[in-house]
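Predict fold of Cell envelope-related transcriptional attenuator domain-containing protein; 281 aa.
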Amino acid sequence: MALTGCGVAAWAVYEKLSNNIQSEDVGQALGDDRPAVPQANAAGERPLNILVIGSDSRAGTNKRLGGGREDGERSDTTILLHIAADRKSAVALSFPRDILVDIPSCKRPDGTKTWPERKQMFNRAFTYGGSACTIKTVEQLTDVRIDHHVVVDFQGFVNVVDALGGVPIYLPRAVDDKTGNIRLPAGCHLVKGKEALDYVRLRHDESIGGNGGDLGRIQRQQAFLSAMVQRVKSTGVLLNPTRLYAVLDAATKSLKTDPGLSSLGDLMALATSLRDLDTRD
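Predicted 3D structure, encoded as tokens:
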């Protein structure tokens, strides 16, 4: 009876975490005119391309975190994660949000279509047609087929960082960004909550390469994501059921994904396949 009770409890936890995840199927909106599926290697394995999109929506509690008065939403951060077929290496390519690109015709949520746009800021694709339009734009730019996508908003990012107990960063110089409203002395810090969000969104403090553009910010974001993974590995999260549940609960509540990653089982299978991935670089 005890074993049966444990099994029921475990299934209840699995179902709760899976139900946290929002699923969006953009397959129809993407259409058939897409890059080819890459060839498998000798072992039958294919590389995997995941597009991670950070939304700047101010809906709900995001307004308090993001500030400003912007309506709608744009892609504040977009990272194409290319994972090798053998799952032992990965490359992250970030797209500057203000880079000028050609945006293809996209289907809006109401079913109507946009006209193709030339020389528009990259982050506008998300405004025009959500995840599908951002995927179409990236595929047009790179000729790389996107297998999965993940969308996270400000509140979701903060929730995951806080569930980890913060993320360590190192500042070679003090930061005093009046535009982003973040001030930190030089040295090591464990950033949490809004402070962590402000740090990864920082663009204007010249002391650490912020000149109003995205290149310095991109470097910090990729380093921060790597630090988050190292935090999970180094703090015993995976061996502590209580902490692991807290992190998984925060992470799953934060995600909007395609159906292929919309259950805890899908995410755990992906995580397991990446167990040999080196995140130090």
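The CA atoms of residues 19 and 263 lie 7 Å apart.
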